[in-house]
Amino acid sequence: MISDHDPIVAIATAPGRGGIGVVRVSSPARLDALIEAIAGRQLTPRHAHYLPFKDADGVLIDEGIALAFPAPHSYTGEHVVEFQGHGGPVVLRRLLARCLEAGREQGIRLAEPGEFTRRAFLNDRMDLAQAEAVADLIDASSEAAARSAAASMTGAFSDQVTGLADRIVHLRMLVEATLDFPEEEIEFLEKYQARSVLDAIASDLSHLLAQARQGAILREGLHVVLAGQPNVGKSSLLNALAGFEAAIVTPIAGTTRDKVVQQITIEGVPLHIVDTAGLRETTDTVEQIGIARTWTEIEQADVILHLLDATQPQPELDAAITSRLPARTPVLEIVNKMDLVDGGNDGAGAGGNAGAEADAGAGAGADADADADADADADADAGGSQRAARVSAETRVAGHPAKRLGISALTGEGLDTLRQELLAIAGWNPSGESPYLARERHIQALLQAADHLDIAGEHAALSDRVLDLFAEELRLAHGALTSITGEFTSDDLLGVIFSRFCIGK
Ligand SMILES: Nc1nc2c(c(=O)[nH]1)N(C=O)[C@@H](CNc1ccc(C(=O)N[C@@H](CCC(=O)O)C(=O)O)cc1)CN2
Ligand SMILES: Nc1nc2c(ncn2[C@@H]2O[C@H](COP(=O)(O)OP(=O)(O)OP(=O)(O)O)[C@@H](O)[C@H]2O)c(=O)[nH]1
Ligand SMILES: [Mg+2]
Fold it and tell me: What cofactor does this protein call for (predicted)?
């Protein structure tokens, strides 16, 4: 386990060439000796000094800016010094080596990923959700995501969470005071209007949850899987959405063997569009493997676009596919090649009876299940089951027919509507309040808190002597909320969170 007391050093800027490169040191103890050794003098706090950085023999490493932030007025809350040099990998490595050498007596070592921010958290410079937002800001893949991360970084999300937690504590205090006077228990609920106070908290919590869900969509990007029979135009649609020829398109059925993923953004929302091998019965070994992968992708999708060919309705085959789609995942049925059929864009060309006589299990690749879950858990944040929480469950009720939309991947007809539908079906609310770039961890905690408030509400509804159970549920709800800001956090959790940061952050 790493010690939170060693001096640490790292290159803080991205690897490779750049205009400027920064080597940053943080230490609980003063850094006077190291500064003197490298910069040749002491530094005025928070003052940019232009000077030569020298090695142990007095040979020039670089001329740059040295900047000292004495504790506690620094990013980490410790003593920090920055050497801002020219941004070349070799010069920065020399500067790094020089810091390790000059700080050896104080026990300096290379920083672990996220360790500067971990210290900022441990020194109360920020709470856990803010620290996570720092990493999310760096990792943001769209402007909307970056905006939301910046808001969370300054504490906007944490303030909401803490506000709810405080209201729960207040209610709990009233209950627990009453517990000492059993004769007053029955009156308690009326006296403090506990029920309506609780309802108000629960309602604000669900509001926050909605904003967090929106943020999770921004953070992770939506995984949209294009699935359907061969030759319906999945790869053509991928190319149309991506704006270039990302996947091979031919008139030959079974062209796509392996998945092809393209990142796009729609109104600032990042989407990962996954093109897959067409689903059919086949004896071709390579194609069979491709089809197995298609089902794996389908299992992990946030949204499934089930493509149909307007010119070749094959309701039985499509129904077989429909019957195998996971019930929890929203599905849009896309009737493609509308440019080839008369009668405009109403999706009728493919025959509107996809739901009829579903021949369960007879779909192509029916035996492809075995490794469907193989790498779903490779990354806890990216696993299919975890992702499911991002897309509101109401979007599609199991067994109900999916929404249909006619398009032409060739002419672009219907694509604008498709883009809007994609956002809508994913639960994206463009006019909603600004989302918080929340993580799955936060959403799970909010859901837990909501559950406990629900149960508390049930206890409050009963007439006799359940106040201690009521109080206990409030305690659990409060605990779930404070796990977001990291009031009480295990070292294991901190390890998991900060190890995903980049080095030097
Ligand atoms: N050069 C440089 N740029 C950087 C950072 C850095 O560490 N160094 N940051 C980080 O990686 C971010 C900025 N974060 C920072 C947060 C707090 C303090 C700081 O010195 N806080 C003091 C003084 C505040 C003040 O002057 O008003 C404090 O809070 O007491 C500095 C940077 C992004 N840019
Ligand atoms: N007219 C017309 N042709 C289309 C349209 N979309 C795709 N096609 C044609 O349909 C054929 C198959 O398209 P692909 O995009 O390769 O189909 P796919 O679903 O990816 O097929 P597989 O990879 O074999 O599963 C190609 O010849 C395309 O040019 C469309 O909207 N209109
Ligand atoms: Mg294809």
Answer: K(+)
